[in-house]
Amino acid sequence: MGTGGTGGQAGGTGAAPLRIGIAGLGTVGAGLVKLLRGNAAIVGARAGRPVVVTSVAARDRTRDRGIDLDGVTWHDDALALAHDPDVDVVVELIGGAEGIARRLVTEALRAGRPVVTANKALIAVHGAELAALAEQAGVPLMFEAAVAGGIPAIKTVREGLAADRLNRVGGILNGTCNYIMTAMRESGRAFADVLAEAQALGYAEADPSTDVDGIDAAHKLAILAGLAFGRPVAFSSVHVEGIRGIDALDLAFAQTLGYRIKLLGLARRREDGIEARVHPCLVPEKMPIAQVDGVFNAVLVEGAFVGRLMLEGRGAGEGPTATAVAADLIDIARGNAVPVWGRSTDGLTQVEALPRTAFHEEYYLRLQVHDRPGVIADVTAVLRDHGVSLRSMLQHGRAADDSGGADEPSVPLVLVTHRTQESAMMAALARIAALPAVIGEPAMIRIEAG
Amino acid sequence: MGTGGTGGQAGGTGAAPLRIGIAGLGTVGAGLVKLLRGNAAIVGARAGRPVVVTSVAARDRTRDRGIDLDGVTWHDDALALAHDPDVDVVVELIGGAEGIARRLVTEALRAGRPVVTANKALIAVHGAELAALAEQAGVPLMFEAAVAGGIPAIKTVREGLAADRLNRVGGILNGTCNYIMTAMRESGRAFADVLAEAQALGYAEADPSTDVDGIDAAHKLAILAGLAFGRPVAFSSVHVEGIRGIDALDLAFAQTLGYRIKLLGLARRREDGIEARVHPCLVPEKMPIAQVDGVFNAVLVEGAFVGRLMLEGRGAGEGPTATAVAADLIDIARGNAVPVWGRSTDGLTQVEALPRTAFHEEYYLRLQVHDRPGVIADVTAVLRDHGVSLRSMLQHGRAADDSGGADEPSVPLVLVTHRTQESAMMAALARIAALPAVIGEPAMIRIEAG
């Protein structure tokens, strides 16, 4: 019959342990050791056998990580884990799309060793190649922790919804950006100010670019899109914008218009291809995702049969991420595995996402304009020329302490368009920016109406 | 090494099909046939081999179900599926904890045949016994569709969070009740009125008891609790209250106090045992679950490492439920399986949930009282005598068209208590109900503060 076994039902404490080698003992690595030890009875029962850490590799032997590593083999070279005879599964927690992380995962798979990783960059950039390697070696490559931390987003998309034709996937995939924009909205403070605070609190890195420029969210989106649509999406083709350009003014205007601003990753199946993009969005405040604030993440999935699902939880941190890694280890201990992209890599080619010019959205525009007659007529004439139709307009009166040009006062002008092709919007915006009455670069934020 | 295979990675259209026998061709059964055919390419690729319906069993051969059953073997007796040589997996969609559904699942497992079911009553009531049977036979028994329809709640709790120590699980588990209470709140109409409308729209059954009396939600909660805590919870020990007693007045008062009323299933791990209960709750309107309206379901899980997760989606209907059944079939096709309660049944005993008297909650009380001096003093004296401390009180002025006793006017009096033992609350309420100034039965609704 060949319909499979019972997933280690017969297993127990008498069964041979699954021996883990961990590369990278940062927050997540140390958290994983704590979880596997603190919850050893639960993990052992669920896995059908003990799951034990036998080897680790990290740079600094002296650092106090709050874990006892007595009896655990220490490697200075992470690559040694790929061949350590006491290791059944390699857990890669070093990070980065290239370098040692990539070499370790490649070498472990080549050595026929299952790999669990939390490395979103690696899977997003090299997932196609690594999937083929895993399949050749006949071993699982798992990465639940790479997307949305404690939310089992990968399992949901790749297994829970495996039977459905998924049309959309995405969500709030970066907790740092969500924290910053929530704080900006609540306090009215500027981006740089809130970023500095987030850095002080440990919610943002010293070099925040990966987060605030949208790269981290784009890695996660590329992975989710690949899983949802059953083939890897070329990471370089994902359109990415971060949140540095969001002004406190935009958050306030959005609220006036009944929206919140969220950095969303969105992938969509269209007749002519796949859209995959990360950028700030105006989201109607009644949508559940608009209410997901602070460091929380939310994953949205929409399928032809299942309708719309939302999963909300902690997207990062020691505990949630360690839980995700350990869940993968339990699956491996049970002998359960799923191909990297949900199906055999045989004949599976990477797909390029559609270019930005093909997007078709509603747009929020904010211009700073000289407060003189005819400005609105000029701006709306450009939009008309490019076939962009307006849905609403908001002009705030001039404040007393207004600071515009040296001698001429200026005001913000907010326009909301109907759905239009982004190529038309781009052409119109270039002309609007060149109007004599328009000061600086116009701000453009897409609207995600649901 | 024994760390498992590659989950059917090598599979493809050339591999032997997984042959399905479906018992019960109602909405879900017909939906499953449509899904497996409409998404045959997706399902085949994900499963590593074709998944085909070879046999069905249903009562009425003549009914038009919108599906073509040519070439499919028809059994009048569902039990025949347990031994049909052309069936690899039995899908039980008949329903009910006893009778033919139970006999079919039992017989199929005894015959060494994997079973997928959407039958929450069966798993909630007989899950312990069926888990042992499945383990003896060495075949999977899967039931993702039994809880929260299209939301992969079972996979999330049993696999995605397998490594964590879960402390709470529950949520909005019955879409019919949530629809009725949403409509009551939005329209101010009475329960009976909205129920009749829901029945006309097909959102409620002709006999709505299983839904509105909380039984359906209790079945799902018992299953979730069993998975979260790693051992089956005796269904008969789950405390169940439905929504028949909810008055439009309560929905309005709740809103005034900053709450919504939801029928929640809640299970909690305590030092002295497990709480498992289904009843209406006042939920602070800022909590995400308070915003889940209409027929939508939401599942909440809380773990020591992962923190809090919420999953929201369609809890019923042809498409979502069929998606869940098909996901189980794909797991079986790949050879992936998990023990029924997440661990071996060896030494696993069923646990009784704590009795109602052990609950420890905040309470909302609504009394109809004669509008005379001293009533509040009498009521609060009783609460004080039982050690119940008050947090707030709400008394609405008497309306002009007030209808109280024959000659004496009456008004509603709303009290909100601090957290207290339910045994004390029950004793106090019995005495309050007996006060001469109190008319009818007091309404008591627990508050779920998060």
UniProtKB/TrEMBL annotation, chains A, B:
<dbReference type="GO" id="GO:0009086">
    <property type="term" value="P:methionine biosynthetic process"/>
</dbReference>
<comment type="pathway">
    <text>Amino-acid biosynthesis; L-threonine biosynthesis; L-threonine from L-aspartate: step 3/5.</text>
</comment>
<protein>
    <recommendedName>
        <fullName>Homoserine dehydrogenase</fullName>
        <ecNumber>1.1.1.3</ecNumber>
    </recommendedName>
</protein>
<comment type="pathway">
    <text>Amino-acid biosynthesis; L-methionine biosynthesis via de novo pathway; L-homoserine from L-aspartate: step 3/3.</text>
</comment>
<comment type="similarity">
    <text>Belongs to the homoserine dehydrogenase family.</text>
</comment>
<dbReference type="GO" id="GO:0004412">
    <property type="term" value="F:homoserine dehydrogenase activity"/>
</dbReference>
<dbReference type="Pfam" id="PF00742">
    <property type="entry name" value="Homoserine_dh"/>
</dbReference>
<dbReference type="GO" id="GO:0009088">
    <property type="term" value="P:threonine biosynthetic process"/>
</dbReference>
<feature type="binding site">
    <location>
        <begin position="23"/>
        <end position="30"/>
    </location>
    <ligand>
        <name>NADP(+)</name>
    </ligand>
</feature>
<dbReference type="InterPro" id="IPR016204">
    <property type="entry name" value="HDH"/>
</dbReference>
<keyword id="KW-0028">Amino-acid biosynthesis</keyword>
<dbReference type="InterPro" id="IPR019811">
    <property type="entry name" value="HDH_CS"/>
</dbReference>
<keyword id="KW-0791">Threonine biosynthesis</keyword>
<dbReference type="InterPro" id="IPR036291">
    <property type="entry name" value="NAD(P)-bd_dom_sf"/>
</dbReference>
<keyword id="KW-0486">Methionine biosynthesis</keyword>
<dbReference type="InterPro" id="IPR045865">
    <property type="entry name" value="ACT-like_dom_sf"/>
</dbReference>
<dbReference type="InterPro" id="IPR005106">
    <property type="entry name" value="Asp/hSer_DH_NAD-bd"/>
</dbReference>
<keyword id="KW-0560">Oxidoreductase</keyword>
<feature type="binding site">
    <location>
        <position position="205"/>
    </location>
    <ligand>
        <name>L-homoserine</name>
    </ligand>
</feature>
<dbReference type="InterPro" id="IPR002912">
    <property type="entry name" value="ACT_dom"/>
</dbReference>
<dbReference type="Pfam" id="PF01842">
    <property type="entry name" value="ACT"/>
</dbReference>
<dbReference type="GO" id="GO:0050661">
    <property type="term" value="F:NADP binding"/>
</dbReference>
<feature type="binding site">
    <location>
        <position position="120"/>
    </location>
    <ligand>
        <name>NADPH</name>
    </ligand>
</feature>
<dbReference type="InterPro" id="IPR001342">
    <property type="entry name" value="HDH_cat"/>
</dbReference>
<dbReference type="Pfam" id="PF03447">
    <property type="entry name" value="NAD_binding_3"/>
</dbReference>
<feature type="domain" description="ACT">
    <location>
        <begin position="364"/>
        <end position="446"/>
    </location>
</feature>
<keyword id="KW-0521">NADP</keyword>
<feature type="active site" description="Proton donor">
    <location>
        <position position="220"/>
    </location>
</feature>
